[in-house]
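Researcher: Here's the sequence for the chain we discussed earlier.
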Amino acid sequence: MPNSCHVYLLQNGQHQVLNIPNEFALSSTEVLLRKEGNRLIIEPISSGSLLSLLATLEDITENFPNIDEGLLPLDDIVL
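Model: Thanks. This is the structure I predict for it:
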């Protein structure tokens, strides 16, 4: 498999579209796209990833107890 190939960017309304050749095809249907300098990095997100799991969870609305309640502030502790 080659490490690089020349491809063209297409314009689709407000978006640029990149056609990925079969030899570079990803097994995932979702990707993480990030920019580093003038490079675009495309990383597959597997369906079993932590990121995809966290996206399905509901927001936490309950208040957590103050586990430091009753303890001295760290500045007051003398060894």
